Amino acid sequence: MHCRTSTVPNPDSKLRIYNTLTKTKEDFQPLNPPQVGIYLCGPTVYAESHIGHMVGPVIFDTIKRYLRYSGYEPTWVVNITDVDDKLINKSRERGLPVSQIATEMTADYLANLRELGVNQIDYMPRATDHMANIIAFIENLVDKGFAYAVEGDVFFDVAKDSSYGQLSNRNVDDQQGEGGGAAAKKRSAGDFALWKSAKPGEISWDSPWGKGRPGWHIECSAMSREILGETFDIHGGGLDLMFPHHENELAQSSCCHGKPMVKYWMHNGLMRAGAKGKVGGKSDRESTPEEEAEGKISRSKGAGGLSTLIRRHTGTRIRFFLLRTHYRSTILFNEEGLEEAGVALEGFYRLFDRFEEISKLSFYDDSLKPARTRKDGEFDPGDDALLKQVDEFRGKFITAMDDDLNTGLGVSVLFDWLRTMNRYLDESKLGPGADVTSTEVQSLIVAMRKMKELTNILGLFTKVPASGGGDEAAQELLDKTVHLLIDLRKEARERKDYATGDAIRNRLTEIGISLLDKKEGTTWETS
């Protein structure tokens, strides 16, 4: 990333971030303001995404929005791990090339991000596109004595890094490296693989150590350096990645470059099944990182594909659900919590409908022309009682976000704001046919413009609400109808009537439904 040196763009900003490395909240002072480099560990694309995969992207999508609102110029990178043991195993299981599975599951991941309004990612590098950089990185570590090669494998020697364990507060003895045949090659149990020699029939690349593929940890070190530089501002991910993944990334990069890899390490809490929390409330947590990792939602815990959940509840509802608590809190997931989130959102939708009837302006598009930065959003409420309250709400929201990006408290402020707006409309007796030039309506428009300014930061209410989440019978009917068409298409293709099969697919695409042909059958998702 090309960086330039300048003064902090907003000297009034009081943003503080909890740094996992120092275990304290620190004033946010980027390396090269106004630019900010952010790297978030993305998925290993071997199966469909589940809701746990959306926690980090939704949080960091919001963080980027707030940084830009605060006058910074953030660049956000999310990697795709498209070569890995899990992908190789899935390739054998499905009888398909690794590349085909990775492409298919990346498409699924991107579709889910789109539904949840995650659209702020600048770069999404794939490991297989950075193989030359990865190999060069490993060669550098070998040349400097931090890594060693044994029979086609290359390992990082954790004993050579005196700072190893600084992120997770663990020592070398706590590290658990790869088992199996690799264990016998290592100098110590804690050493981890940088390069793995290929077994017969496995996907592989040529390297100075023979055919093989990279280890998981080295991929992120190489890709983050290539795009953001040897040292960058923020590295994010779930608490379950802090050890060993982020610890090993930190060791590789700091030893290779002789300087810190990252200034601020940010770890979001994990999602686990449990009792529902209060929408608009504060933290649902306190638990240790180990407890969170133990209870987190994952495929091994039975989590399935996300597209069905989105059809049932809508992407906006799921995004709102994920932002209603502080990002470092555990998210307690269950269907009741999502239903409750939907009920809460309906209150905002009713306000927006009332507002449009009165002002003839939509809250969902750019009709209100909200401010894009906190500086541009500053205003003088004068003696207007409503706007004085609005100015207070805006200040509370920004204070919450400045305090370690507390979206949970920010959402609470929006609920207070919602109640105030409804009370104002009732007391002012404003309704359809009101004089839009009146003082009351003009104050209403300013108040809603300020609300839009802040909901944009959360990525909420950016489009007219989608149907779903509340009419399960309709959703079930839609699912049955689409599967009936899938069966008809299958029958047409079996009798070589490809024109009819293609027509069914094309007509479904026209109404926003995409068919996904897989070895085990055809599924569908909204597009």
Automatic annotation (TrEMBL):
A motif ('HIGH' region) lies at residues 43-53. Keywords: Aminoacyl-tRNA synthetase, ATP-binding, Cytoplasm, Ligase, Metal-binding, Nucleotide-binding, Protein biosynthesis, Zinc. Its EC number is 6.1.1.16. GO terms for molecular function: cysteine-tRNA ligase activity. Its main location: cytoplasm. It catalyses: tRNA(Cys) + L-cysteine + ATP = L-cysteinyl-tRNA(Cys) + AMP + diphosphate. Binds 1 zinc ion per subunit. InterPro entries: Cys-tRNA-ligase (IPR015803), Cys-tRNA-synt_Ia_DALR (IPR015273), Cys-tRNA/MSH_ligase (IPR024909), CysS_C (IPR056411), Rossmann-like_a/b/a_fold (IPR014729), tRNA-synt_1_cat_dom (IPR032678), tRNAsynth_Ia_anticodon-bd (IPR009080). Zn(2+) binds at residues 41, 220, 245, 249. Monomer. PANTHER family: CYSTEINE--TRNA LIGASE, CYTOPLASMIC (PTHR10890:SF3), CYSTEINYL-TRNA SYNTHETASE (PTHR10890). This is Cysteine--tRNA ligase. The lineage of its organism: Bacteria, Pseudomonadati, Planctomycetota, Planctomycetia, Pirellulales. The gene is cysS.
